[in-house]
Amino acid sequence: MASKYSIVQYVPNPIANERINIGVVAFNEEQVRVQFLTNWERVRNFGMEDITFLKTFAQRMSEAADCGLIFPGDNPNAPYQERLNKIAQDWLNSIQWTEPRGSLEDVDSLLEDIASNFLVDLNSQKPHRRDRQDAARLTTSKFRNVFQQHVKNDYKELLKTSYSVQGIHAQHKFDAVVANGRPCLAAYGMSFEVKRQEHLQNSLSWMITDVKQCQPDFPIAIMALQPKKDFDNYQELQQTYRQATSTFSELGAKVLAEDEVESWVLERLEKAYLL
Question: Looking at the domain assignment, is residue 221 inside a domain?
Fold first, then answer.
C-alpha cells in the first residue's frame, strides 16, 4: 500500500516565512505514525517565544495517532491535505505542513527515514523515553529480523503490519501478525516509559479478551518496554507496568521484554511449521 508523508514546521512569523522542522507524519489509508522532537531548545531559540503550545500540539497529534487518526476528530474520508490543514487552523498559522509526498515504503520504514532526514534533535540531558509508537516499530522490526534470517519463503507474504485479527465482537489491529491464509500469531507493543496511557491499556485488554473469546488458543504477545531506573518517576511507572502486564497475562497474552520477542516468534513459527 502506497504511503505519504509530510513535514510539520513551526513558523513563528508568517510574514517573514522563516521556518524550522518540528515533526514528521507518515500515513496511508490505514495507519498513521508521527514523530516530534524530544529536545525543543533549538526551536525555542529560533522562535524567541514560549513554545508550550508546540509541545501541546505534538502531544495531541501523538495521542490521535495512537488511535489511528492524524488528529482528534479526524475524518479519514476527507482528502489528505484537508485533513492536515484542519488541525493547523487552531494554531494561528504558526504550524504549517509541507505538501504530502508519496513513497513506496511501508509507513514504519518511511517514518524512520524522514525523521532521520528532516529532524535535527539535539541530545537531551534527560533519558529518552520511548512511546507507544516506538514500541510498535520495535515490535515489527524484531518480527522482520526473524523472518529475514530464518524464513526461506517470501516473508512479505506472511508478515503483516498493522493487521486485523478477528474477535467475537470486532476486528482488532495488532502491530505484527503472521498470517498463512489466516492469522497464526500476533503481537502488540506497549511502552511503560511514559505516562497518560490508561486508555491504551484498557483498549489492549479489550483486544486480548475479544480475540481470545473467539480463538482461545490464538498466540498473542505483548512486547512491554519496562521503565528504566534512572527515570525520575520510576516507581510510579514501574507500578503501572506491573499492574498492566499482570492483567495482560491473566487474559491469556504472553508478556515479553524487548530481548525476548525474537525467540518467541521463532518458537511460534516452528510450531506453525513455517520454517
Answer: yes
Predicted model pTM: 0.60
Q: Do residues 91 and 57 make contact, with C-beta atoms less than 8 angstroms apart? A: yes
Same domain? 21 vs 113: yes
Verify that 38 and 168 share a domain, yes or no: no
DSSP string, the chain: --EEEEEEEE-S-TTTT--EEEEEEEE-SS-EEEEE-S--HHHHHHHTS--HHHHHHHHHHHHHHHTT-SSTT--TTS-HHHHHHHHHGGGTTSEEEPPPEEESS-HHHHHHHHHHHH---PPPSSPP---HHHHHHHHHHHHHHHHHHH--S-GGGTEEEEEEEE-SS-EEEEEEEEESSSEEEEEEEEE-SSS--HHHHHHHHHHHHHHHHH-TT--EEEEEEPPPTTSTTHHHHHHHHHHHHHHHHHTT-EEE-TTTHHHHHHHHHHHTT--
Q: Is residue 141 domain-shared with residue 108, that is, in the same domain? A: no
Weakest-pLDDT range from 6-15, 109-118, 153-162: 153-162
Task: Express each pLDDT in 47-87 by its tens digit.
Answer: 888 889 899 888 888 887 877 776 656 666 666 556 665 65
Residues 257 and 146 in one domain: yes
- Alpha-carbon span 10 to 185, nearest angstrom: 42
